[in-house]
Every structure is written in C-alpha cells, then in structure tokens.
Write a structure and sequence with these properties.
11 helices; four-stranded antiparallel beta sheet; six-stranded mixed beta sheet; 28% strand; 29% helix; alpha+beta; 380 residues
Length: 380
C-alpha cells in the first residue's frame, strides 16, 4: 500500500502541494482530476521520488520512501510521464527492454527476455516490434511505452495524462488497457486525467484536487457529482447517466450569446477559457478567467488570475495590473483609432482581456460607452 501524509511541495513562493494526505487503493484504477495547476502531476512525481518534497512522508509497503534505494523503488513503481524524450532512435523491442533495467542492469537474462516477450504479446506489438518509435502513430507509441512499464513488472503504475494527443478510438483503447492491467495483472494504477467522462467510465476511485489540496476522494460515483466538479473546475456542469455511468456535458446550459473561446492569464502561466454570454456577462471556465458582469451591459464581476498582462485589438492598447485578488484597469499613453477617427487621450478606453477578436467588438463598444458615461457622471 502507498500512503501519503501531509506532503508539502513548493516552487519558490508558489505552493503546489499543501498538506496532501491519501491512501491509494490497491488493485484498482484511481483517477486524479482537477484543473491545470491543481498539483496532480506533482503528487505522482513526489510519490515516485522524481520530485523532492519539503515536508511530510510517503510510505510504500510499510517503508519510508527516503529509506528505499532508487533501484528498489524502480522495482515497485513504474511511471509514464506526459512527454517521453528518448534522445536516441530505438525500436519497439529495444524500448520494451529498457523496462528490465532495474532488474538486470542492462544485462538481459532468460527471465528478463520472458517478461519482455510477455509485455510485447500483451500489448499486441509483435507485428511492429522491429519498427522505430518515430515511425509509429500516437496510439502505437503509447502502447509501446505501456509495454515498457509492463516489462518493468511493478505492482504500482502511475500514468500522467496517457490520453494526450490520442483520438477517441485510441483513447478508448488505452483506457481499456488500463482497466485490463487491474483485472488481468492485479496492478494498482493511478492515472491523471482531464477528460471527466473517461474517469467516470473506467476508474474505480477518483481523487479531486484544487490549488494543491485534495478536495474530495472516494468511489467514482460519489465524486463525479455536480457539487464537486463545479467547485474544482469553476464551471457549471450538467451531469446525466447512461447505462449506469455518469456522463458530464460541458456546454453552458444557461444560454445567451456564445462568444466563442476567450482567454486570460491563470496561475502558473496557464490559460483558462470561457464563453461570452449576453453582452458582457462572462463566467469562469478555468484558472485566470476574467469574470465580467452580472448585470447585462458591463457591471464588473470578480477577477481571478495571475500576473498583469497587455493585450491589443487593432490599434487599441490596454493594461491590467494585479491589485490583490483583482485587476485594476490602467490607461496606456498611446494613440488609438475607432472607425478611422483618432481618439484623444481623455476619450481613450480599454477593452476587457477577452476582447481579442474584432467580430465581437460591438458589444464591447457598448461596454466602453457605458464606462465613459459612468466616468462623466462621476466627474461632471
């Protein structure tokens, strides 16, 4: 069993894991879900001793992580990260052989070759075992890397976003493979997922994270609920059921004008996205979204996000500077034009951060006119 107690990890002043504690269920698929920057990848990196932690403890089968030799950890935990950079050109078979290194140190024995053959057969790679990795499709590459960690023959397997760059067909195949690792080989699998529907359909347990903390964890049907998902993703979820499995619908059921995707800066440099609705009513859709308006044409809402930033639309310029948990609008001393006419400095106005597409300019001009009239009333 793997048990994590009060783990704290930070990069500089940015706390990534804040007192995380959890016991991973054995011989089950556990999905880690949460928005970008929630700490999911850092957590599995800490458990696998790829990332040092500031305080807390990690116990693996009753042993403290720091007391276990690196080679012995590699015999207990196999991890597949988001991106794999080999640095050399290798064939599928050679890649799978890498999985036996913790056991043989590079000198393959008969028992090692048996494990390699079992992994290749289990992942159905016999027909492409001689091909180079750079010659494979995305789905074939993922199967080859899974075969490598199968050859490593560890009881615990960590997969960090294994569905990256896979289409629907290969994503479904990958999730079926992950389930089979538990069903057939009795492995304990922890997988980081961004697609909630895959987590709901294929995982036994779900761990919901936000801002470096575990918000909730338990059986999948207990965690994939509107209250939990709305909170950790800052989004209004619509959840239904199909054949006993929960299905999340991501569209905005409140209606209004769909202004398309917009973006703003979020924590850790990530982008968040949302939709413009009605005129300037704007809901959150990820970290760093500028939530604009609840009153039709421009009443300001709460602003979440990271550092100040400068955006442009045509010749307009704007600047938003952080002030605590809000942004303050600052004018830039530069000339702009509206419909070809020069604007004086006194009349210059600045778009909200999601005004980056000219075809939505009219509603924003309404907002700017409202802001101008409000300023005139305040300074007659």
């Amino acid at each position: 069993m793997i048990e994590v107690k009060n783990i704290v990890q930070a990069y500089g002043k940015n706390t990534v894991l804040d007192g995380v504690s959890i016991k991973l269920k054995e011989r089950a698929v556990t999905a880690l879900i949460g928005a970008n920057g929630a700490g999911k990848s850092t957590l599995i990196g800490v458990i696998a001793r790829l990332i040092p932690f500031i305080s807390g403890s990690v116990m693996i089968d009753g042993e403290e992580l720091g007391d276990i030799k690196t080679r012995e950890i590699a015999k207990k935990i196999a991890i597949l990260k988001q991106t794999q950079s080999l640095g050399v050109r290798v064939s599928v078979e050679e890649l799978v052989e890498f999985g036996r290194f913790p056991h043989c140190g590079g000198r393959l024995r008969d028992t090692d070759r048996e494990k390699i053959e079992e992994a290749i057969a289990y992942m159905d790679l016999a027909g492409i075992r001689g091909k180079y990795i750079d010659e494979l499709s995305g789905g074939q590459k993922q199967r080859a890397f899974i075969a490598m960690i199968l050859a490593q023959d560890t009881p615990y397997i960590f997969l960090d976003e294994p569905l990256n760059n896979l289409d629907i067909k290969y994503s479904v195949e990958m999730m079926k493979i992950i389930r089979s690792l538990v069903r057939d080989l009795k492995k304990t699998v922890v997988v980081v997922l961004h697609d909630i529907n895959f987590a709901a359909a294929y995982s036994d347990y779900v761990v919901a994270m936000k801002d470096g903390k575990i918000i909730n964890c338990g059986r999948t049907e207990d965690i994939v609920t509107k209250d939990v998902l709305d909170y950790i993703f800052d989004h209004d979820f619509n959840i239904t059921e199909h054949e006993g499995k929960k299905v999340c619908l991501y569209y905005d059921k409140r209606g209004g004008h769909d202004g398309g995707r917009t973006r703003g800066h979020g924590r850790g440099g990530e982008y968040g996205y949302g939709n413009e609705r009605a005129h300037n009513e704007h809901g959150s859709g990820g970290n760093g979204i500028k939530e604009y308006g609840q009153n039709g044409c421009g009443e300001h809402g709460e602003c979440k996000g990271g550092s100040g930033h400068v955006l442009r639309e045509k010749t307009f310029r704007l600047r938003y500077e952080p002030r605590g948990d809000r942004y303050e609008v600052r004018k830039r001393r530069s000339c702009g034009t509206e419909n070809g006419e020069s604007l004086s400095r006194a009349n210059r106005r600045f778009y909200p951060p999601y005004a980056t597409d000219g075809k939505y300019g009219r509603s924003y001009l309404n907002l700017l006119r409202w802001m101008e009239s409000k300023e005139k009333r305040a300074n007659p």
